Amino acid sequence: MSPAVQKAIDAITGQFNRDRVLVAADREGGAYVMVEGVTLGAPFAQDDSWIGFHIPSTCPYADVYPHFVRPDLARLDGASLGEGISTGHAFPDQAALKTPGDMPARTAVQVSRRSNRKDTAGLETPLHKLLKVIQWLKTR
Amino acid sequence: MAQDAIDGPWSLTIPETLFETLQGHLFPGDGDEHGAVLVAGIHPLRSGCARLLARDLFLAEDGVDYVPGKRGYRMLRAEFVRRHILTCRDEQLVYLAIHNHGGSGSVAFSSDDLNSHERGYPALLDISRGNAVGALVFAHGAVAGDIWLPGGRRVALDRTEIIGRQRRVLRPAPRGSRAKGDPQYDRQTRMFGQAGQLILAGARVAIIGLGGVGSLVAEYLARLGVGAFVLIDPDRLDPTNIPRVVGSRRRDVWWGLSSPTAPAWVRRLALAHATRKVDIARRVITEANPSAHVDAIARNILEPSATADLLECDYIFLAADEMRARLLVNAIVHQYLIPGVQIGSKVSVDESGRLTDVFSVVRPLRPGINCLWCNQLINPGKLADEAKVDRERKGQRYVDDDEVIAPSVITLNGVGAAHACDDFLFFMTALVAPSGTLDFARYESRSRALSMSSPRVDPCCTECSSEVGCRLGHGATGPVLPTFAV
Ligand SMILES: [Zn+2]
Ligand SMILES: [Zn+2]
User: Fold this and answer.
1) Are both B26 and B109 inside the same structural domain?
2) pLDDT tens-place string over residues B346-405
3) Burial environment of residue A29 by CB neighbours within 10 A (0 to 12, 13 to 18, 19 or more)
4) Is residue B246 part of a domain?
């Protein structure tokens, strides 16, 4: 893994409990990451979810998106999940892993949040992006 | 490579903006001596040569930092020296003390200068802990250097290269002219001289992407007489490339077997054995100039072994569309002070399929001056997309955002390639007019309009600034390059 990707993962394991963070290397020096048991709750029917995402080898320059969450995600009010959230995905693609099977695929709901262009002074870290996505989900 | 294992000549490369600031300080018109400190990165080459890379300049204020000497005429104050030598120790950089002499065209250290080096530099080497230290003396049009290496060896600077609107070379003294030229270059040497032809023959140029744009660049540079090429492209020729790739032939794709009417398995087999684009470019180059040296590398530019070859070049032509290639080349331009250019063309159509924009761009890249990251020309979202495998990318895409194959036309590629090679020629031979700029150029094919834009510079840019941890001139001890990790 590239030093910048390792640093990003260290920041994530520092924020969440280390044993809740699963990591599998991709073929280019990036990594697939899964954080278990992230608190969700209203407006969703589920109290928590795992969140998976890909940190490219070109971290911290590359955006981190999309994010993936549990496949049964549903709203308490029964409304549709809304724009930027789509069902019927799988995460991660085994062909992208350095060692297929390192992180078994799960069916998933995809959350697409692209960041606007990062400014050069303060690059958005994968941890920062993850927290933003969690926040965004909670305000749906 | 340890600094004391370098056995070839040492050179210094300075971005033009830094050089102009230094010139203004050393030669304000008072005819006196002035001082400064240059902090430099280091770049050992495979040939055993080493390049010092000017990263940051600290001007010594007369009477404060640059004071009457105890033995010589003037000297840098101890506190000024100490401040900068500690920075060099901490960031693994080379400390270079600068002063000037009068005269022009040639320069040498005085015996007072050399005596002061012998008294002071062993102690400076101790403080800098494993990093070279040295001195430079400037006159008008000449630079000499005395570099002290950690192992105790001492080398004289061979030459100083100034990289900006054009490339200028300064030496301690003028060199005599060399052998007679090749008569086949008679017509072009009537413009840029035998000296220019020798510069081209001595140049090592990288071309990234040997498709529509890159194949034309290879053709132009080979016929100009450029001596060495590093060609990088992982792809094989496809039948749809033939209308644009210079030098490609139908038999390169097993024409007939690879046509859309052939059975799928035959077509797949034919395409798997099609000629690699780098090998077509090699053929074009050696037909134009059999003595050219060509390294054809059929790999992704982000593979560390391919990146290592790029670092050995004098100029980089970026003719590939990938954002990741832009990120990497831009980092190399600034961190290793290697000039280059990004070339591209774009055809846009609206929803109804009607043609809107058609243009070619030529963006000169110069260390500390022109930066793709500062100018928002490297898209973080596309960097993320390019890191995904095909199936993954398709799975994540929305239905209304289908991947489309972009239009591409040889004449648009030709506009970009010709201008980029023209810029390279005038840069290398130092024949750029005083009014010449490094603006990004955009040629609109439909209106024949040419627009120029002055690149912006972010003073804290991680890529093109010399802030702590940023890339400019940091060379081998700088940040890790954005390649694949192995
Ligand atoms: Zn002197
Ligand atoms: Zn920049």
Assistant:
1) yes
2) 999 888 889 999 999 999 999 999 999 999 999 999 999 999 988 888 888 754 455 578
3) buried
4) no
Does residue A89 sit at the B interface (CB-CB below 8 Å)?
A: yes
- Whether the CB-CB separation of B262 and B256 falls below 8 Å is answered with yes
- Cα–Cα distance measured from residue B198 to residue B179, given in angstroms and rounded to the nearest whole number: 10
Contacts of B395 in chain A (CB under 8 A): 89-90, 93
Q: How far is CA A5 from the centre of its chain?
A: 14
Per the structure, the count of domains in chain B is 2
Per the DSSP assignment, residues forming a β-bridge with B449 are B444
Q: At what angle do helices B410-428 and B186-201 cross, to 10 degrees?
A: 70
Give burial (CB, 10 Å; 0-12/13-18/19+) of B38.
Answer: buried
B416 within domain boundaries: yes
Chain B residue set in contact with A, beta carbons under 8 Å = 302, 324, 327, 373-374, 376, 378-381, 383-384, 386-389, 391-392, 395-396, 398, 458, 460-463, 480, 482-486
CA of B164 to the centre of ligand 1 (A): 28
User: ipTM of this predicted complex?
Assistant: 0.94
CATH number at residue B72: 3.40.140.10
Domain region containing B61: 3-170
